[in-house]
Write a structure and sequence with these properties.
Mean pLDDT: 95
Oligomer: single chain
Strand content: under 5%
Radius of gyration: 18 Å
């Protein structure tokens, strides 16, 4: 029987598929770390109080990249090239989601509108990350090899999501509500397309590595398309709602360090 747990267990049990999974994850997290670090540097004067939280966000992402790399090292594996069609972060930028790297590489201060774009991008993508890590936590929180990493990353993603809710609500109360809602809706609809395409690409690569029969791959592809259809119809709405989080000032303190996995 196909299930999220059985599929990930297959990936976990194979060195080749596990190296690809961790390499994709580490690359995306490290890219997010760089983006947040640049945004923190370029924050406009009126939003300077936000800079330490953005820095903390970036430090967490960097930490996650190191954790995924450490999980590979623990098994004697090295990172492998990330296929372009599986590069979620870069595909989001290609589809116009978030602040372009060309803007972030210039030493020009950002605007409040840019901060809205950054937070809306984070709100949508952190929703996805929080849900995915929650799923892994449900099935692998007590796993002897990856359990501690899963728990730590899951906690961080929940903090990031809470932070996005809190800061977007603050900006909405300051008069940016309509812009925030327009941006969130556009980004949510774009993200679900990118997520579908990346999911299909990742499953295709995993299928070849693990020798899945065509029927199994077809069922998985059909499931991915079904999830996309649901998200395109109504599921996107969970990515655009804003509510006061239970975790207040979730990124108000220093980032935690990556644990040793040797």
């Amino acid at each position: 029987m196909l299930s999220a747990k059985s599929l990930f267990q297959e990936i976990l049990d194979s060195d080749e598929s596990f190296a690809l999974f961790c390499s994709i994850a580490a690359s995306g997290e490290s890219q997010g770390g760089w983006e947040n670090a640049r945004i923190a540097t370029l924050v406009p004067r009126s939003e300077r109080a936000l800079a330490p939280k953005i820095t903390r966000h970036g430090a967490d992402e960097d930490k996650h990249g190191r954790i995924f790399t450490a999980l590979m090292t623990k098994r004697g594996l090295t990172p492998v090239p990330v296929p372009p069609e599986t590069d979620y972060t870069m595909l989001l930028e290609k589809h116009g989601i978030g602040l372009a790297h060309a803007k972030l590489t210039r030493d020009e201060p950002l605007t409040v509108r840019d901060i809205v774009i950054y937070l809306a991008h984070s709100r949508v993508t952190e929703q996805r990350a929080s849900e995915q890590m929650d799923l892994l936590r449900k099935h692998f929180a007590d796993h002897p090899d990856i359990g501690r990493a899963v728990r730590m990353i899951s906690d961080d993603e929940d903090n990031h999501l809470a932070y996005c809710h809190e800061e977007l609500l603050r900006l909405a109360y300051a008069g940016h509500g309509r812009d925030i809602q327009r941006t969130l809706r556009a980004y949510a609809l774009a993200e679900i397309r990118v997520h579908r395409d990346v999911s299909l690409a990742v499953m295709d690569h995993m299928g070849r590595i693990l020798g899945w029969p065509k029927a199994k791959s077809a069922v998985l592809a059909a499931g991915i398309h079904a999830v996309y259809a649901y998200e395109r119809l109504v599921g996107w709405r969970r990515m655009v709602t804003l509510r006061a989080p239970e975790r207040r000032d979730a990124l108000g303190g220093p980032a935690t360090t990556a644990p040793e996995f040797a």
